[in-house]
Amino acid sequence: MVQGFAKVSNYLFIEIDMSAIQVKDKLFEPYLTASEINGQVQRLAAEINRDYAGKKPLFIAILNGSFMFSSDLFKAIHIEAEICFIKLASYKGTKSTGQVITAIGLDTDIHDRHVIILEDIVDTGKTLNEFLPQLRHQQPASLELAVLLHKPEATRFPVPVKYLGFSIPDKFVLGYGLDYDGLGRNIPEIYKLKEGAE
Ligand code: IMP
Fold first, then answer.
1. CB atoms within 10 A of CB 80
2. Most buried among 40, 44, 51, 186, using CB within 10 Å?
């Protein structure tokens, strides 16, 4: 159950019972707890701390969805590092539109830098598949991906994820930065669309 949210409908969502919440017209069931998410975030940060010591990596967080993952992961990075943000979008409701829009571009020089992209989720892979070549063109010293969630069954454009939190089924998820039509990003856990409620 999500802690600290009210049950009435004019708040963030309606808590149906212990097993479901409603956001707008859809029902979601609990999937990953805050503690499970934190465990994977800490593991990824430890691997990056080990692999990038002395390399002063530049993290590029892709907004909006990755803001919570990026913040928690970056707090667990203990080596010298920088972070900047870009905004890409391709989703409307629970479906990808297939069109990737750059809403806020990159304002940092990545030439010769060790770059780590931070992304909340790889679904079809289209977003990163379009964005990575633009970055490679600027000749970073290295370029790797740290991704919290990956839906391998949905992936149509292969994306080489070096640091992965969870491999998940092809189900729409929300919480921990991920939204359904703008809502649900502030839920500390991850929920998935309830079986049979699509
Ligand atoms: P892709 O380009 O299809 O890989 O989609 C990537 C983007 O779509 C992610 O950065 C998310 O913003 C959004 N997205 C994909 N799957 C989900 C989901 O299950 N819930 C919420 N957003 C999603």
1. 11
2. 44
Q: Rounded to an integer, what distance in angstroms lies between the CA atom of residue 17 and that of residue 19?
A: 5
Going from the Cα of 54 to the center of ligand 1, the distance in angstroms, rounded, reads 33
Strands 20-23 and 82-92, by their bridges, are unpaired
Q: Could you read off the pLDDT tens digit of each residue along the chain, which spans 198 residues?
A: 444 454 444 445 666 666 889 999 999 999 999 999 999 999 999 999 999 999 999 999 999 999 999 999 999 999 999 999 999 876 566 666 666 777 678 888 999 999 999 999 999 999 999 899 989 999 999 999 999 999 999 999 989 999 999 999 999 999 999 999 999 999 999 999 997 765
3-class SS at 36? Answer: helix
Length of the chain: 198
Q: Is 123 a catalytic residue?
A: yes
How many angstroms separate the CA atoms of 173 and 29, rounded? 9
User: What value, to the nearest 5°, has the Cα angle with vertex 123 and ends 117 and 164?
Assistant: 45
- Determine the atom of ligand 1 nearest the C-alpha atom of 96: 3
The model scores a pTM over 0.70: yes
